[in-house]
Specification:
homodimer, 402 residues, alpha/beta, Aspartate Aminotransferase, domain 1, Aspartate Aminotransferase, domain 2, 2 domains, 8-stranded mixed beta sheet, PyrdxlP-dep_Trfase (chains A, B), Aspartate aminotransferase (chains A, B), pyridoxal phosphate binding (chains A, B), transaminase activity (chains A, B), aminotransferase (chains A, B)
């Protein structure tokens, strides 16, 4: 049989992160590549109790098909949670559960994007968003970010330029807090200006906030959704970083008409999310376990971030710079301009250390001299040893390019 | 904010089954509408043990991100299971886990279909397939089925007709065993001829087999995949009907190149399926619990099928006919030609009984005088009472149309 696949594979390419996974079975490899939470942050004991109670109290319901939008009582608990943690007011009907945030990203692209429609992202941005938007043949345009988040002047100039060609972006995708991959947080002033631009040009904002609760220092900045008076913001949350990523549960908060479209599409995508995982999330919120778990995770990750930064200061060459995130899971490192981190990856893997090269985070592969480092997953001694190895690799690579 | 959605919503329409769901909270309603397993068939006690063991033995792994293709050990157990139950030989690399069979249907359409490409289905066919194929802008063409399954002569004529216009179907989608909605089973002879046609014209077969293990009488018929020598068949299985549908787990068995494409797409769809559910399925297979559970479910459903058929014989008007399935979950009822079951549904809902009208199962809404009845979900007394109500509704409707 000679299979002929659809043209979508001109847009979808294997991601560097996923191809790194084949190396992860090597116990010698220290990987800063994946975006995995540390298993120490998983509430295993609490889960055991929750699971036993679920099976005793509503086992059959937790094993039956759920509704496409998700469990009513879970959506009610989520409304309380986002009000308390992010100042977001949402009714049950404005919330839909998704099979991870990844499904939310896919669905949002699918409900808005016709072939080749422009979509604005940050540059760099989340690889999973690139993958979801590519699968829906979006024409992505990346706007630079700095330590205060997306450059809103550049954004407005881009919107005007598109407008002169009769085009308008379908949405503006941002990860304003502890950005993936850069680790930066958008300032309150920029958030307000972004919302103004969204209102002025009638372009929805997709605010992705997987890391908001993982703050290690500094003061919280208001979510854009909490300032949204006119339903311009589509807000994405997830249980992956505050409960467990293996339970594939994310959620979208948006005006009812957007939720209805995602619902209609989700019926074709997977009918409904996992019922058992929805019941787990419901109990996890209702019991307040989430508020006991997050501070433990924050303490664990703060130490790891500090250790990685200390190691970078100690071992990395002087030409290298890196972000100092107040939260989240990632550092963004910029190296000497002559270095191409994609090419250098082979050398790194031989030295048994992995990262994701910066170009993976751009829709069209810019910033060849940068890399993303995850600081949450590795054990402390591995963080130090991995940064040492990476410093060695960079120094070797410098000798080649010099 | 004035939202402008993509053109996909010219193809995706709300499904009748999902809109019926809003009535299901009415405790007076007897619904033969949904395709839900009976909660009595769920292995709740076994699940409790399995969950406790999972958390004790590999809790952290079951809460961490899994791989896109799914747990290695689960895929190995699945290979044993499909060999034993369906005579299918499959290597681990030829299997991918999906978030329910629904995701498999969506992914298969997405990897093969360019806009408006022809796809062959049975007529009637599964609504979820119509939804997944519509979401990928397939041009569906339904081939009639009879008590021996798809009319393969009509199929070949359609392929030739398309070929004269330079067109070729991207795949042929069939549910050969205990078809949804018709309840019929494709004969061995037709299966062989279908495979020959697939090979002659180089058109893949998508064999969807959610109900194969739910056989109440008669002899098993070989799966098409078990006869497939040249990798023409893409086989879809699910845990929904033999374990629990709330755990969203299906699987695809196909040549490696097809699995690789689904994998690449799934990274954008939801990254990976639910890890905890994968571990549950693994333990459920490994312990042999599945082989203890299926006979119980078969006994439960056989009685319900017999009871529904007996009630139909007793209460339904003479002009009505229905299929007598050897397994699965559904009966297909044909009424007097003057009746439009879509129109009659309002009257049925007033009489507190629900079904899905036949036209929902055709890509372009044929067969106005038929309906699908689910016999697995309702309690025995509700089956009798519901059929009585429905007979009353049909008789009333006949008086109007006569």
């Amino acid at each position: 049989m000679n299979y002929k696949f659809s043209e979508i594979f001109r847009y979808i390419k294997p991601s560097e992160i996923r191809s790194l996974l084949k190396y992860t079975s090597d116990p010698e490899l220290i990987s800063f590549g994946g975006g995995m939470p540390n298993p120490e942050s998983f509430p295993v004991e609490e889960m055991k109790e929750i699971l036993a109670d679920i099976m005793d109290n509503y086992g059959k319901k937790a094993l039956q098909y759920g509704t496409t939008e998700g469990l009513d009582v879970l959506r009610d608990e989520l409304a309380k949670y986002v009000l308390k943690t992010e100042g977001i007011n949402a009714k049950r009907e404005e919330i839909i559960l998704t099979t991870g945030s990844q499904q939310a990203l896919y669905a949002i692209a699918k409900i808005f994007v016709n072939p080749n429609d422009p979509v604005i992202t940050e540059g760099p941005t989340y690889v999973g968003a690139i993958s979801a938007f590519n699968a829906n043949t979006a024409n992505m345009m990346a706007i630079d970010i700095d330590e205060n988040g997306m450059n809103v002047d550049e954004l407005e100039a881009k919107i005007k330029e598109l407008s002169q060609n009769g085009l308008k972006p379908k949405f503006i995708y941002v990860i304003p807090t502890f950005q993936n991959p850069a680790g930066t947080t958008m300032s309150l002033d920029r958030r307000k200006r972004l919302l103004e631009i969204s209102e002025r040009y009638e372009i929805p904002i997709v605010e992705d906030n997987p890391y908001g609760q993982l703050r290690y220092d500094g003061e919280p900045v208001q979510s854009i959704k909490s300032m949204d008076k006119n339903g311009n913001v589509i807000y994405l949350g997830t249980f992956s970083k505050v409960m467990a990523p293996g339970l594939r549960l994310g959620y979208v908060i948006a005006p009812r008409e957007v939720i209805d479209k995602i619902n209609l599409l989700k019926q074709g995508l997977d009918l409904a999310s996992d019922s058992l995982s929805e019941y787990i999330a419901y109990e996890y919120l209702k019991r307040g376990a989430i508020y006991r778990q997050i501070p433990k995770t924050v303490d664990l990750y703060r130490k790891k971030r500090d250790l990685m930064i200390k190691s970078l200061e100690e071992y990395f060459p002087e030409a290298a710079t890196w972000t100092k995130p107040h939260g989240g899971m990632f550092l963004w490192v910029s190296l000497d301009e002559r270095i191409d981190t994609t090419k250098m990856l082979d050398r790194a893997l031989k030295a048994k250390v992995a990262y994701v090269s910066g170009s993976a985070f751009y829709p069209h592969g810019e910033k060849h001299n940068s890399m993303r480092l995850n600081f949450t997953y590795s054990d402390d001694d591995k963080i130090v040893e991995g940064i040492k190895r990476l410093a060695y690799v960079i120094n070797e690579e410098m000798e080649v390019v010099e």
